[in-house]
């Protein structure tokens, strides 16, 4: 993944939207689909071999539901609202005919249809050539966990987008807030046994009352993850471990009965004499 481009508009790239007169037929085939989990990085593919006939720095545009996601021509780049610092079409790949859109820290609201265009024409009249349509699906995380009573439950936040952790006890309907991010760099712990880690919230010393459903929410209240937690009794010792402990205690007890009253140094000397 390359570094994020700067949100530069030195060449007024978005203003070209108002002077585009037509859209040609698509160079590519039918729509393709791709998906990823929220918080991860994604690549929306766009491979066009004919880009080698374009200018050295082709003008590439990515749109989502008619909103600008990314525009770039050479070193001049623009990222749409909500995509600042997250969207890029690497120039070195573009020169090889790869106009794929790279998205970082993917959000649930990024789901939708994306279209890439090659903008061509002179400085006064431009037109757009549709390169690729991509159906992009962003999934939330769903998992189940089993935790032994008395141990800690670690909840992954997955992304800085996480704003709250809520909990619904088993067989109850209400949701309780366990952790909340109040503002930039500021967090608030509401659960008495909760502590914060690096993109995690840990509930210490789990009890039966902690069994239920946990959700990590973003600023829009959308679930980034849902974790169903089952609490079990601590695992007993394995049979061989129990047997080893019993044998050790029996040997220790037998040894102490064999030579009652003898000091340790006399017992050791007595044993060495017969070796």
From TrEMBL:
SMART domains: IG. Residues 1-29 form the signal peptide. GO terms for biological process: cell surface receptor signaling pathway; cellular response to lipopolysaccharide; immune response; negative regulation of T cell proliferation; positive regulation of T cell proliferation; T cell costimulation. InterPro entries: Ig-like_dom (IPR007110), Ig-like_dom_sf (IPR036179), Ig-like_fold (IPR013783), Ig_sub (IPR003599), Ig_V-set (IPR013106), T-cell_Activation_Regulation (IPR051713). Residues 233-255 are annotated as: Disordered. It is found in: Cell membrane. It is a single-pass type I membrane protein. Keywords: Cell membrane, Disulfide bond, Glycoprotein, Immunoglobulin domain, Membrane, Receptor, Signal, Transmembrane, Transmembrane helix. Gene3D superfamilies: Immunoglobulins (2.60.40.10). It comes from the Eukaryota. GO terms for cellular component: external side of plasma membrane. Its main location: membrane. Residues 5-114 form the Ig-like domain. This is Ig-like domain-containing protein. It comes from Alosa alosa (allis shad).
